TrEMBL record:
<protein>
    <recommendedName>
        <fullName>ATP-dependent DNA helicase RecG</fullName>
        <ecNumber>5.6.2.4</ecNumber>
    </recommendedName>
</protein>
<dbReference type="InterPro" id="IPR027417">
    <property type="entry name" value="P-loop_NTPase"/>
</dbReference>
<comment type="similarity">
    <text>Belongs to the helicase family. RecG subfamily.</text>
</comment>
<keyword id="KW-0234">DNA repair</keyword>
<comment type="function">
    <text>Plays a critical role in recombination and DNA repair. Helps process Holliday junction intermediates to mature products by catalyzing branch migration. Has replication fork regression activity, unwinds stalled or blocked replication forks to make a HJ that can be resolved. Has a DNA unwinding activity characteristic of a DNA helicase with 3'-5' polarity.</text>
</comment>
<keyword id="KW-0347">Helicase</keyword>
<dbReference type="InterPro" id="IPR011545">
    <property type="entry name" value="DEAD/DEAH_box_helicase_dom"/>
</dbReference>
<dbReference type="GO" id="GO:0043138">
    <property type="term" value="F:3'-5' DNA helicase activity"/>
</dbReference>
<dbReference type="InterPro" id="IPR001650">
    <property type="entry name" value="Helicase_C-like"/>
</dbReference>
<keyword id="KW-0547">Nucleotide-binding</keyword>
<dbReference type="GO" id="GO:0005524">
    <property type="term" value="F:ATP binding"/>
</dbReference>
<dbReference type="Pfam" id="PF19833">
    <property type="entry name" value="RecG_dom3_C"/>
</dbReference>
<keyword id="KW-0378">Hydrolase</keyword>
<dbReference type="GO" id="GO:0006310">
    <property type="term" value="P:DNA recombination"/>
</dbReference>
<keyword id="KW-0067">ATP-binding</keyword>
<feature type="domain" description="Helicase ATP-binding">
    <location>
        <begin position="284"/>
        <end position="447"/>
    </location>
</feature>
<dbReference type="InterPro" id="IPR047112">
    <property type="entry name" value="RecG/Mfd"/>
</dbReference>
Length: 700
């Protein structure tokens, strides 16, 4: 059954096939629906009139009521222009046309009152408006525009074909006229009543031609709510669905492994946050469904230990566990620290990465298949089909943002009937609103406390003029026995130049500190060279590590207490925060010094100021989202759950989002499969979105 809004855009009066093609190419507008859901990005208040004497050239636009006094054509040939004098009681300004001169001359009536609208400029000492919009008082009254005029984003290609914001506005008005009484409501009656929402048809009309501010506000709320609510409904339906569909393994026992480790091997007290999260996990694995939990915790908050304790729980219940890390270095590091912590417990832990030799790999595969190996730590190599387990009960994924939903799903399938429990760990703090949307199908735990005794890292921002001071400081620190990281940007577009910068930086540092040993690590190095350089630094044989962002994730050298970031203005906020997290792991006071050039954009300045002001990863993530917008944040693209927000904004609409999520939850609690009559509209909507951005198949 086709609806009115499903009609192709070329059939809208005034559009036609040619403009339809451009609309599709440039804005993906194919149907009436696509057009009506293409919202203005701003409004211009057509109720406001200016006096000519008040006009300033900084104003974005002006609207003036006045009388046309004189008109003459100036210049010759291509340089010809039509200049008119336009006055009100306070002064006179000029109106100028370069095109359509003849037509304008015929249209305009001398000594008539007009309403002029346009962008003011200063031209040989006089205020002027080029190509103004002109209307008589009668025309103004007849026009069906709202008092606020919507402005629409257009592209260069569109402008060339005269598809301007004004034309889009005209199309919208035409469409709204035709659509009267034909737009079907998308939200069920009970929700509209409960939340006092503006009905859809009215909201769509008001969003394009609002008559008053309250009307615009109500329309905006309705459309934002709908957008966020439908996303939440999808995500939560997915979660409910999965809970129903998949049984989970029952880790009922807390036994020998967990208890022995806790009592005899654990080298320190757990923080309260760690205890809280372990409790949450135990509740998950003690239920009837599969755990799908996201563990967020700032760098150094002790997530690995939580992972380890969960693995011990799996072992107590005769299950195998695997821990997957995004890089070889990280996998090795986890392997070493976990093996060390478990030393003496008689647990068989393996390491499987891309560089594991064939012979070793074979032994490992067999041990996993027979169940002789209880824990395996590795990289993507773990996902390969050749790896099979005897009884895989727990999968831990470290640094989630590098793995997509599809990859997670592949690991689940390593157990035929019942999927293993999943714990995803990330040190990239995700703003709450984004987490609810991107990882909305996961339960979320947060470790919001660092282990005791850590001194907050001191962060400073230096310009080049303090280079000598920096060098003296580094000298002092190294003489005290501290190790130092110096990080250079390496961004793929300019890789060659960056590599040159890095090598020059390395030479410069070698010249400045001739008495110290220096390691260098970058992404273009062979893995084994990279590894041996890392190890030399870790063992304390070198004092300075010159590196690119390859050290960004997870590398742990407690004795390194100083992080210098060169050209810090070129890094994103979350990257700066990740890098800074490499220090502050030992007992010494740690420092992070951000070096930048003098010329930095205001956005870069804001990033550096934020770093200096706070160590709180969540605060940093919020600022990051406000600066960049959620779509740009690391992880959103790879998360596998696509969403395209047309009107809501995750940075600003957190409250509406929370409301939408609560209501979606209530509806699903009451009617999990959306079978009730009153929810049919929602079910239809959910099913129709299956083939769009949501990849349902990779999840279920
Ligand atoms: P994350 O993975 O969250 O960045 P790690 O698990 O690597 O953090 O822990 C960082 C450091 O803190 C490690 O050296 C770890 O041994 C130590 N650590 C973890 N938990 C505690 C604790 N409760 N008390 C003291 N030190 C801890
Ligand atoms: Mg870690």
């Amino acid at each position: 059954m086709s609806e009115f809004l499903d009609q192709e855009i070329k059939f809208l009066p005034g559009v036609g096939p040619k403009r339809a093609e451009i609309l599709f190419k440039e804005l993906k507008i194919k149907t009436f629906r696509d057009l009506i859901y293409y919202y203005p990005y701003k409004y211009i208040d057509r109720t406001k009139f200016y006096k000519i004497s008040d006009i300033r050239t900084e104003m974005a636009y002006i609207q003036v009521k006045g009388v046309l006094r004189a008109m003459e054509t100036v210049g010759t040939g291509g340089k010809q222009r039509l200049v008119a004098r336009f006055s009100d009681s306070t002064g006179t300004m000029e109106l100028v046309w370069f095109r359509g001169i003849k037509w304008q001359k015929e249209q305009l009536r001398m000594n008539k009152t007009y309403i002029v609208f346009g962008k003011p400029a200063l031209f040989s000492g006089r205020i002027s408006v080029v190509h103004p919009e002109m209307e008589t008082e009668e025309e103004m009254q007849l026009k069906p525009v709202g008092l606020f005029q919507g402005h629409y984003n257009t592209t260069e290609k569109m402008k060339k074909q005269f598809l301007t914001s004004k034309i889009i506005n005209k199309f919208q008005l035409t469409l709204l006229g035709l659509a009267k009484g034909k737009i079907r409501e998308t939200l069920p009656e009970h929700l509209i009543t409960q939340l006092k929402l503006m009905p859809l048809e009215q909201a769509l009309s008001a969003i394009h031609k609002p008559e008053q501010t309250t009307e615009l506000k109500n329309a905006t709320f309705r459309l934002k709510f709908e957008e966020l609510f439908l996303i939440q409904l999808k995500i939560l339906a997915l979660k409910h669905n999965r809970k129903q569909k998949f049984k989970g393994f029952y880790f009922e026992k807390v036994g020998y492994n967990f208890n022995t480790f806790y009592e005899k091997f654990l080298p320190f007290e757990l923080t309260n946050a760690q205890k809280k999260v372990i409790k949450e996990i135990r509740r998950d694995v003690n239920g009837t469904s599969q755990m799908n939990r996201l563990l967020q915790g700032d760098v150094g908050s002790g997530k690995t230990l939580v992972a380890l304790m969960t693995m011990l729980l799996a072992m107590d219940n005769e299950f195998q566990s695997c821990l997957m890390a995004p890089t070889e270095i990280l996998a090795q590091q986890h392997y070493q620290s976990i093996s060390k912590m478990l030393d003496g417990m008689g647990i068989n832990v393996g390491l499987l990465t891309g560089s594991t030799k064939a012979k070793q790999r074979k032994i490992l595969h067999e041990a996993l298949q027979s169940g002789a190996m209880q824990v395996v730590i590795g990289t993507h190599a773990l996902i390969e089909d050749t790896v099979s387990f005897n009884r895989l009960g727990l999968v831990i994924v470290d640094e989630q943002h590098r793995f997509g939903v599809a990859q997670r799903a592949k690991l689940w399938k390593k157990n035929d009937l019942i999927p293993p429990h999943i714990l995803v760990m990330t040190a990239t703090p995700i703003p709450r609103t984004l987490a609810m949307t991107v990882y909305g199908d996961l339960e979320v735990s947060v470790i919001d406390e660092l282990p005791p005794g850590r001194k907050p890292i001191q962060t400073m921002h230096f310009f080049e003029n303090r280079r000598a001071q920096l060098n003296r400081f580094l000298q002092q620190q190294i003489d005290k026995g501290t190790q130092v990281y110096i990080v250079f940007p390496l961004i793929s577009e300019s890789e060659k130049m960056d590599l040159k910068n890095l090598e020059e930086g390395y030479r410069h540092i070698s010249d400045t500190f001739p008495d110290y040993q220096i390691s260098m690590v970058h992404g273009k190095m062979k893995p084994n060279l990279k590894e041996s350089a890392m190890q030399a630094f870790k063992r304390g044989e070198t004092q300075i590590m010159v590196a690119t962002t390859v050290i960004e994730v997870g590398v742990d050298v407690p004795n390194a207490a100083v992080m210098v970031i060169e050209s810090a203005e070129r890094f994103g906020l979350s990257q700066l925060h990740q890098l800074r997290g490499r220090v502050g792991r030992g007992a010494e006071q740690s420092y992070c010094i951000l070096m930048s050039s003098y010329k930095i954009s205001s956005e870069s300045r804001k990033r550096l100021e934020t770093m200096v002001r706070t160590n709180d990863g969540f605060e940093i993530a919020e600022v990051d989202m406000k600066l960049r917008g959620p779509g740009d944040l690391e992880g959103t693209q790879q998360s596998g759950v696509g969403f395209d927000l047309k009107i809501a904004n995750l940075g600003r609409d957190g409250e509406i989002l929370q409301k939408a999520r609560n209501i979606a939850n209530d509806i699903l609690d009451d009617d999990p499969l959306l079978q009730k009559e009153q929810n049919q509209l929602l079910l239809k909507n959910l099913l129709s979105s299956k083939d769009t951005s949501f990849d349902w198949s990779s999840i279920s």
